[in-house]
Amino acid sequence: MAPNGKPVITFVGAGYVGLPWAAIFANWGYQVYALDVDEKKIERINKGEAPFEEPGLTEMIAKVVKEKKLIATTDYAEAIPKSNIVFICVGTPSNAKGEADMGYVFSAAEKIAQNLGQPFTVIVDRSTVPPGTVHKVRDYITKARKDPQKEFAVVSSPEFLRQGHAIEDTLHPSRIIIGSDDPRAIALLTEIHGALDCPKVVMSAESAEIVKYAANAYLAMRIVFADQMSNLAEAVGADIKEVIAGTSLDPRIGDHFWYPGLGYGGYCFPKDVKALASSYQANLNEPNLFSILDELNEARIERICQLAERQLNGLTGHKIVIWGLSAKPQSPDMRGSTPANLIKALADRGAIIHAYDPYAWEEASGMLKGMVQLHRDHMASLPDSDGLFILTEHQEFKNLDYRIVKDQMRGKLLFDAKRVLDRDQMRKIGFDYWGIGDGKGNKL
Ligand SMILES: NC(=O)c1ccc[n+]([C@@H]2O[C@H](COP(=O)([O-])OP(=O)(O)OC[C@H]3O[C@@H](n4cnc5c(N)ncnc54)[C@H](O)[C@@H]3O)[C@@H](O)[C@H]2O)c1
């Protein structure tokens, strides 16, 4: 324990999940270590800066680093021996088979084990991992532990924050899940999360691991559901906006999380649905909803591409301008960006792609190198274009004068993948308006 009687906490993995939590616990007066293998990240944190965009994070880091409540390090031997609680927050990307790649988690577990220094340490798995991982982490630690007198418990406590809202979501979570049967670990985790006004739900570690996959797969399913309803609306001359307005009034369904568009993307949903499908297959070896979700979602980009081909009478040599590249609105994060997937598919078919994004220029210039000409100014992207595709609902795109936009273009196709614009207004201006799920006079 620290001199103030509070447990010392380390976050292994100072990314989108680990770092906001580290900053918040430090701000609450805990002695916190943020441990990462990325030296540049650690250097920036120790200078009092956030190494990535997240509202409110830099201010909080600047404060707690100055107070020495948050210390960033690459050295396990500096942080782990003093820590009573260690959160594992490293990445769990998909491997080639679609399973969660557990290499980072197991490597972190091994190094934690070699450096245990307290009589009892709680090791918390906050990364998203397949059911059964708690036992594997426990085995790694038991084998790699240098001193068998150092006791430990492994707990599953999955994370639900949204990127772009990390501080807000961490301070106001919907719930804290504590997956453990160890009374000392449960007491310690309940205590440190005590300031949060939300249910703290204690359950088995296996259930906790499934909760995270269940939440992400359910939300991904709503997106695929909305996409399929959009297809039907387009085919029969209905409008998905009207369908959602009518359907969502049912209180059992609600008006949240209806997002027809390019399918689900981002860092978590695609890899987590694939990992769930793999885990289901490995445990039950029978047909399952999650494999089908993944297949339908993967097919989404191809379908949009075919529709674009039809709208423009072929894609070869046509200049398409893409506005909006990031995976989420008002964010620079390109991980799992569905616009990037669509760009690859369009470019493969011979389209010439120009693009603009107000947030993700740096990230996109690396990821889409050689595939697209990026512009710093949205108007500069338009001359000689045959079509304008708006793919991310950045606020900026809602408030432009589209008469000027239209004047700059050669063609008049306007694809609105997120339904941010008014169909009738756009038609009045002279666009061939193609809105996702909009079958009104827009036969595809
Ligand atoms: N990003 C989200 O919105 C979000 C939300 C909920 C859950 N999750 C889950 O949380 C986990 C972490 O996600 P993230 O977005 O924070 O990832 P991230 O890539 O932003 O951060 C992971 C960090 O771990 C570091 N790292 C890797 N191996 C390490 C090791 N052995 N020791 C120390 N550091 C190591 C990396 O350098 C990186 O900085 C994933 O399992 C993810 O699925 C993410």
* Low-pLDDT ranges: none
Strand content: 5-15%
Shape: elongated
- Helix proportion of residues, in percent? 40-55%
Largest beta-sheet characterization: 6 strands, parallel
Terminus-to-terminus distance: 65 Å
Q: What's the gyration radius in Å?
A: 24 Å
- In what order do the strands lie side by side in the largest sheet? 3-2-1-4-5-6
Bound ligands, each once: nicotinamide-adenine-dinucleotide
**Record field, number of beta strands:** 14
Q: Would you tell me the structural class of the helices and strands? A: alpha/beta
Q: How are helices and strands ordered from N to C? A: EHEHHEHEHEHEHEHEHHHHEHEHEEHEHE
Rounded average pLDDT: 95
Description:
The chain is built from 16 helices and 14 strands. The protein is an alpha/beta fold and 444 residues long. The strands form three sheets. Strands 3-2-1-4-5-6 form a six-stranded parallel β-sheet, sandwiched between helices. A six-stranded parallel β-sheet has the order 11-10-9-12-13-14, with helices on both faces. Helix 9 (205-236) crosses helix 11. The protein starts with 8 loop residues before the first strand and ends in a 9-residue tail after the last strand. The model has no long low-confidence stretch (mean pLDDT 95). Bound molecules: nicotinamide-adenine-dinucleotide (NAD). Nicotinamide-adenine-dinucleotide is lined by residues 12-18, 35-38, 41, 89-92, 104, 107-108, 127-128, 159, 161, 163, 267-268.
